[in-house]
Amino acid sequence: MIPNTELLKKIALALVIVFSSSYTHAQELSSLEKGLELYSNARFDEAEQAFKEYIKSNPEDSKGWYFLGNVQLELFAYSKAIKSYNKAIKIDPEYTDAFFNRGNVYYEMNKMDKAILDQNEVIRQDSGYTDAYIVRGSAWFNLNDYSKALNDFTLAITLDSSIASTYYDRGNTYFRMQKYAEAESDFSRAIQYLNSNPDYFFNRALTRFILELNDAACSDLEKAAELGDEDAKAYLEEFCSGL
C-alpha cells in the first residue's frame, strides 16, 4: 500500500506539536521544581526568579503565585507578597494556605484587623487549621483583646496539645489577665515540651515572684541566664543574691 503523503505530513506535524508541548511542559515543571529546591535551600532571591519564570508561562496557576508569595515573605518584601497571594486567591478563592500566609504577612505588617479577617476565612474553610487559631490569637493579643486571644489559644491547644509556644502564648495571655496561677501552669507546660527557650523560664520566674514562689523563681532565672538571657542575669543579682 502506498503511504498517504498528506496523512504522513499531518502525523509528523502532530508529533512535532506533541513533542514541543511536552518539552515546554517539562521546562515549566523544571522552573517550578527549581524554585522549590532553591526555596528549601534558603536561596530566596534565586527562587523568586525561578517562580517568576514559571508564572510567565502559567499565569493562571495559583500554586505558582502562592510559592512566589512565600519567597517574598521570606525576603520581607511584604507588599509584593500580598500581591502574589492576592493573585493566588483570585484564581482559587478556596486556597486556604494562601489566605493563611497572607494573614501572616498582614500580621508582620502590624495590620491586625486584616490578619484576623484572613484567619477567619481559613477557619471557615478548615475548622481544624491549628495555626490559624494561633495567629488569630496573637493578633487579638496585640489588640489587647485578651478574652478572644485566650479562646483562640485554647482552641489551638485542643487541636494540638504538643506545641510548646501555644502554651507560652496562652500563659502570657493569662498573665495580662492577672490570672497568675494559670499563667504559671501554662509556662510550665511550655517548658515540659521545650526546655531550651530562655523566655519560657524568664516569664515563669516573673510569674512565680508574683505568686511568692521566690526560690522556684530564682531557679528559673538561673536557667534563663544559662540559656543566654541577659535580663535574667540582672534580675538574679537584684532579687536572688540574698536568697
Report on this model:
With 243 residues, the protein is an all-alpha fold. It has a domain of 80 residues: Tetratricopeptide repeat domain (Serine Threonine Protein Phosphatase 5, Tetratricopeptide repeat, Alpha Horseshoe). The protein is built from 13 helices and no strands. Helix 3 packs parallel to helix 5 and helix 7 runs antiparallel to helix 8. It is elongated and about 70 Å long. The protein starts with a helix and ends with a helix. The N terminus is likely disordered.
Provide the structure class.
Answer: mainly alpha
Order of helices and strands: HHHHHHHHHHHHH
Task: Output the CATH topology of the domain at 14-93.
Answer: Serine Threonine Protein Phosphatase 5, Tetratricopeptide repeat
- What percent of the residues sit in helical stretches (DSSP H or I)? over 70%
Number of helical segments?
13
- Give the amount of beta strand, in percent: under 5%
β-strand number:
0
Radius of gyration: 26 Å
Task: Summarize this entry quickly.
With 243 residues, the chain is mainly α.
Q: Descriptors for this entry?
A:
243 residues, mainly alpha, Serine Threonine Protein Phosphatase 5, Tetratricopeptide repeat, 13 helices, disordered N terminus
